[in-house]
Amino acid sequence: MPRGFTVLEASRLGGLPHYSVCGGKGQCSTCRVQILGDYQRLPQPDQLEQKTLERINAAPDVRLACQLRPDHDITVAPLLIPATETALPANTQENKSWPGA
């Protein structure tokens, strides 16, 4: 994915379902992801994202996908799975292959 996109935008452009109840405004936290790897290299959360992360008592490796614009390749795990995914059998979710993944 080209630089400059948020993680949420990249997910959607890649055809991956990703929750975002507030529409990417950084207020609801439903798009939150866990950073798998060196989260300390990422740009710091801005004031809006930090406030939302504090409100939900997020761990240091959790960020809002709608606000995070990585400056290098990262791997994330969405923390809330859209209903269409949770309706699948568990083994289907674990082995799901996404284009470009």
From TrEMBL:
Alphabetized GO MF terms: iron-sulfur cluster binding
2Fe-2S ferredoxin-type domain residues: 1-82
Top-level division of the source organism's lineage: Bacteria
Organism of provenance: Rhizobium mongolense USDA 1844
A Pfam short name: Fer2
InterPro entries: 2Fe-2S_ferredoxin-like_sf (IPR036010), 2Fe-2S_ferredoxin-type (IPR001041), Beta-grasp_dom_sf (IPR012675)
Protein's name in the database: Adenylate cyclase
PROSITE patterns, per database record: 2FE2S_FER_2 (PS51085)
